[in-house]
Every structure is written in C-alpha cells, then in structure tokens.
C-alpha cells in the first residue's frame, strides 16, 4: 500500500527506523556500525555467541574496525549486539549479510541465506524492508526469498518490501569505506526499490538504483568475475614470460603508463578471500539452467587454482640448484592472509601452499603479524606464527613471500635468507644481484 511505503520511507529519512543486520562478519559488522553512526537504533544479530560477547564488551574481532568504535556505539546504545533473533519483530529493516560458500562440485550453498531468511520470515511484519546483501546468483532474491516470505500472507511491494543490495567491502582499503562506496540497489518491485533506496540514502554518499533484484545480483557477480578473469590472464602471462626470460612486473609497469584502455592487474600465488575464488562459480552453476557454458570463468578458475602448485614447483627448482631436496627442507612462509594488511585467511593461497609442502614432507612454519594462529579444516594441525628475526630467516632453507604485508622488513629477509621465492614482487625495492630471489 502507498501509505505503508511512504511511512517506511519517512522512517528512514528521519532516522526513526530500527535496523537489524543479520551476520556480523566482514560485510555485516561495518554495515552495522555505519547504520548506528548514521543515527539509527541498530541491532546486530549473529549465531556466534562469542562474537556477540566480544561486541557487548566493546571489543572488535576484525582488525580494520577499531575496538574504540565498537565500544562507543555499544555504550551509546545505538548498537545492540544480540543472538536473540526474536528481536527482529521490532525492526523496520532486516539486512542479511551471511556467507554464501560453495558446496560439492562448486554448487551454490545457500544454507546460511535460507536459515537466516527463515528467521526473518518468522517475524516478518507489515511495513518492513528486507534486503539481501550476500553475493549470490541472479534470481536468488526472487526465487528463494520471495516464496519463503510469501507464506506469511503478506504481499511484496505493498505489505512489505524486498530488495537486493550487494556488499562491496574491501577490508583495509584506506581510500574507500562503507559510507563512500556507491551502493547498488535493486528491488523486487518498484515500490521495494524506492524504500530500499531511502534506507541506503541515509547511510551512504551515493545510491545506484537498478531495475530489479536480478540486475543488482548480476552486477556484483560481474565485478568479481572481471577481477577473476583478468587476474587469471596476468597469471598465465606470468608463466609464459618466465619461460621467455621477461619480467612480467616490468611489463605491467610499462603497459600501465597508457592513459586509456588499460587497467593493471597483478599476478600472485593464487586467489583468496570469500568473493573472487567463490562467487564466479555461482553464475557458472546458474548458467547451466540456461544451457550455457561460462568458458571464461571455468578457464580462469583453472589457471588461478594452479598457481599454488606453480609456487611450490619454483621453490623446488630453487632448492635443487642449491643441492637441497624439498623433503625435510625448512620452509618459512611470510604471510598467511589472502591479501596485505588484513587478518582474513579465507580461501588464502597460503593454505594450499602449506598443504602441498606438507605432502612433500617439507618442514613448514609461517610468520604473519595479523594471523597469530592458523587453524582451518584444510590443515591437519593448528599452526602458530613464529617470531620474525634474522635467526628465524637464516635457519630456513627457503622463504616464500605469499602476502606482501606493509610492515615486513624485506631488506632483512633478503640479507639473511638462503633463498627467497617472491610471489608478490615485494622485494623489488631491496633486491641486489647477490640476493637469491626467484619470482613465482
């Protein structure tokens, strides 16, 4: 009804709406903080009671979100962390920010989305806005959430409002924040779009409306597939240029001087994070329903997935030249996180490299100033970050730079290492002909 729509919009405009954010991870927690800082009473929901306890105590479990920021919002009462989802009945908006991993055979696993949406459905009420932010295939909002909410008897676009708005978080990016990154919004109906646009307009500097939830879902996949495919291309060129004796980093620098028609991408040891290694295959899966094969995505996945093996192969070559076998060799990894200056190890190529080294009976240790403890189902045992000292480096047969954190003393590493395998060109400013460095 028009009255409900206008009333909902008015609540977002005057900040009287109560916001519920479901899922307090790398996407949900920053969003929760921004809603609270924008003047909304905000409830942050999560099934992980440990997270709720930390937030209630004013602590932060995400490195780039200061504890002082959390403490201030909690003490002011604008942020209320909770594991009690029944409080959703008092919320004017429910924003779903939960993981969307891959299942067996690279199929979408919507378990977290469905379970969370069911919790929302139990308390769905007239005038409420529901937004899905989790990255997924085009059609999820219409085909999964909409039928689930229809059981309530409420009519979408009239009694309640449903939209998709993809998260665009980039942890530790000093140039952009949740507030300054443009927000794409697509509603299931035109009325849904108007209410969702009003909600996000109170939060971010720019809202970008699109025609539908499907268009918004597709936009997020395009963003991630664009990166995935281009990184795969540059990784493949790296492999070719290695054989040709050409420095791929020099080539990229030269090409990047072109002021139009070129965007630089950089090679590495493989893809990491929750988005780029995972999200493209949501579209691959959906495309099969339309009898369409996404060949670029599949090929990019193959190339990027093979990079950890290439790193280990290059390491083996370097050790062989030193008369040393990988079996029994002491290998020190620098970096466990998937990208620089964060603590996030989800899908990190470091984990696959460690697996491969363990399979070849190497003795592996790692140093990461952001990851003191490395525990994952992919590794047989928990690993702990070692101290980064000249002695630690010198006692290793080889050092692999997996993550180019800014606070690493690369000059010290080069000075004391017997062999360095650099996957990020982190040593470029410090390398001398006397240093034993292999690019990988």
What labels would you give this structure?
440 residues, alpha/beta, Rossmann fold, 2 domains, 8-stranded mixed sheet, 5-stranded parallel sheet, 15 helices
Describe this structure in words.
The protein is an alpha/beta fold and about 450 residues long. It has two domains: about 1-220, NAD(P)-binding Rossmann-like Domain (Rossmann fold); about 305-440, NAD(P)-binding Rossmann-like Domain (Rossmann fold, 3-Layer(aba) Sandwich). The protein is built from 15 helices and 15 strands. The strands form three sheets. It has an eight-stranded mixed beta sheet, with helices on both faces. A five-stranded parallel beta sheet has the order 10-9-13-14-15, with helices on one face. Helix 5 (about 110-120) runs parallel beside helix 6 (about 140-150).
Describe the secondary structure blueprint for this structure.
Elements: H1 2-13, E1 18-22, H2 28-37, E2 41-45, H3 49-56, H4 67-76, E3 79-82, E4 93-96, H5 111-122, E5 129-132, H6 140-150, E6 161-164, E7 183-187, H7 190-201, E8 207-209, H8 213-244, H9 248-255, H10 280-287, H11 295-305, H12 307-321, E9 330-334, H13 349-359, E10 363-367, E11 373-374, E12 383-384, H14 390-394, E13 398-401, H15 410-416, E14 420-422, E15 437-439
Parallel strand pairs: 1-2, 1-4, 2-3, 4-5, 5-6, 7-8, 9-10, 9-13, 13-14, 14-15
Antiparallel strand pairs: 6-7, 11-12
């Amino acid at each position: 009804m028009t009255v409900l729509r206008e009333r909902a919009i008015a609540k977002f405009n005057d900040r009287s709406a109560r916001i519920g954010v479901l899922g307090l991870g790398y996407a949900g927690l920053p969003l929760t903080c921004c809603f609270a800082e924008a003047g909304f009473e905000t409830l942050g929901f999560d099934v992980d009671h440990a997270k709720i306890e930390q937030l209630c105590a004013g602590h932060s479990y995400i490195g780039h979100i200061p504890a002082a920021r959390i403490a201030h919002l909690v003490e002011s009462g604008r942020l209320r962390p909770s594991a009690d989802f029944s409080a959703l009945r008092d919320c004017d908006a429910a924003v779903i920010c939960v993981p969307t991993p891959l299942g067996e055979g690279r199929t979408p696993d919507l378990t977290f989305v469905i379970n969370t949406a069911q919790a929302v459905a139990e308390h769905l009420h007239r005038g409420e806005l529901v937004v899905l932010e989790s990255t997924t295939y085009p059609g999820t909002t219409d085909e999964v959430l909409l039928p689930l909410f229809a059981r309530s008897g409420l009519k979408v676009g009239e009694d309640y409002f449903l939209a998709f708005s993809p998260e665009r978080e980039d942890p530790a990016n000093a140039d952009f924040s949740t507030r300054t990154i443009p927000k794409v919004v697509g509603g299931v109906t035109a009325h849904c779009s108007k209410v969702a646009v009003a909600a996000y307009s109170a939060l971010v500097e720019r809202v970008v409306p699109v025609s539908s939830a499907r268009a918004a879902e597709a936009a997020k996949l395009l963003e991630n597939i664009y990166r995935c495919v281009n990184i795969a291309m540059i990784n493949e060129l790296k492999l070719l240029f290695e054989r040709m004796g050409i420095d791929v980093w020099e080539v990229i620098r030269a090409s990047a001087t072109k002021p139009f028609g070129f965007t630089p991408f950089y090679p590495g040891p493989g893809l990491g994070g929750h988005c780029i290694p995972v999200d493209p295959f949501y579209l691959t899966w959906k495309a099969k329903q339309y009898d369409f094969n996404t060949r670029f995505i599949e090929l990019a996945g193959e190339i990027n997935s093979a990079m950890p093996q290439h790193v280990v192969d290059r390491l083996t070559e370097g050790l062989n030249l030193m008369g040393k076998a990988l079996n029994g060799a002491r290998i020190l990894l620098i970096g466990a996180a998937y990208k620089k200056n964060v603590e996030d190890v989800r899908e990190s190529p470091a984990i696959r490299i460690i697996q491969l080294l363990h399979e070849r009976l190497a003795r592996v240790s790692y140093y990461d100033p952001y990851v003191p403890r490395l525990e994952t189902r992919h590794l047989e045992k928990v690993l702990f970050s070692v101290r980064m000292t000249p002695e630690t480096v010198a006692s290793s047969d080889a050092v692999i730079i997996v993550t180019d954190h800014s606070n690493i003393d690369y000059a010290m590493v080069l000075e004391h290492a017997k062999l360095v395998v650099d996957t990020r060109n982190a040593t470029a400013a410090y390398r001398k002909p006397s240093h034993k460095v292999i690019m990988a």
